[in-house]
Amino acid sequence: MSTRVFLVTGGSRGIGEAVAVGAARQGFDVVLTYASNEARAASVVQRIRDAGGNAEAVRADTADEADILRTFSVVDSCGRLAVMVYNSGITGAHSPLAEAATETIDRVLAVNLRGAILCAREAVRRMSTRSGGAGGSIVFVSSRASFYGSPNEFVWYAASKGGMDSLTNGLAREVATEGIRVNAVSPGPIATEIHRPGKLEIGAKRSPMQRAGTPEEVANTVLFLASEAASYVNGANLVISGGL
C-alpha cells in the first residue's frame, strides 16, 4: 500500500491531539488511540476529516498487549506504517514513594514503559527494511520528570520516563541500519490535563521563560523528528521546557 499511516497513541487530547492534527495536515492518514473518552476521540477524528484528512480512532489500553495488537491490525488495514508516536502516559495519584500503592506503580509502569516497548516492537516489525518494510520513524514522548525525578509526587512516573529514555537510546542504535530512526521529546510544563490543580502554574513560574508550553509547541517538535528534515537525527531526546 502507498498510503502512509501515522499512529499516535493517546491521541484524543493534549499533545497527542496536536500531533494527530498536525500529521493529518502533512498528508498522513492518522490512526489515534484513546483510553476511554470515545466522544473526545471522535471529535478529533471529525476535526481531521473536516479539514480533508483521513483518520481512525481505536479504543485501546496500551498496557494490554491484545489491545496493542488490535491497534496495529487497524494500522495495517489503513496502509503502511510510516510513523509511530508513543504518547500514552499517566502519573497515578501523587504521594511520596513510601505511601504509594503497588497497584499505582504497576499501572504507571505498564502504560508508560511496557506499552512503549510493545508498541515499538510492533512498529519495528512493520518498518524494518530487514523484514521487507520501507523504514520509518518512532518518536517517544518522554518528560523532564526523568531528569528531576519528581520527588514527593510520583517518582515511579519519573522512573518510567527514564526507562523510555533508555529505550530511545538503545533502540535507535539497534535499528539504525534498518531504515528506522528513533527519537524522543522531553516536555517540561505543558498546558495539558495531566496536571493536578495548581501544578502547572508552579512549573510555569520555575521556567526561565515564565510560562507553560502549549501542546502545539511539543507537536511541532515531534513532527520535525518524524520528518525528512530530521533525516540524520537518531537517538536524540529534545527538551521542550522553556529552559527548565
Question: How does this model look, in words?
Answer:
This protein has 244 residues and is an alpha/beta fold. The protein has a single domain, classed as Rossmann fold (3-Layer(aba) Sandwich), CATH 3.40.50.720. It contains eight helices and seven strands; from the N terminus they run βαβαβαβαβααβααβ. It has helices spanning 14-25, 38-50, 65-78, 102-127, 145-148, 155-174, 199-206, 215-226; strands spanning 4-8, 29-34, 55-59, 80-86, 136-141, 180-187, 237-240. The chain has a seven-stranded parallel β-sheet with strand order 3-2-1-4-5-6-7, with helices on both faces. Helix 1 (14-25) crosses helix 8, helix 3 runs parallel beside helix 4 and helix 4 (102-127) packs parallel to helix 6.
Reconstruct the topology from this structure.
Blueprint: E1 4-8, H1 14-25, E2 29-34, H2 38-50, E3 55-59, H3 65-78, E4 80-86, H4 102-127, E5 136-141, H5 145-148, H6 155-174, E6 180-187, H7 199-206, H8 215-226, E7 237-240
Parallel strand pairs: 1-2, 1-4, 2-3, 4-5, 5-6, 6-7
Helix pairs in contact: 1-8, 3-4, 4-6
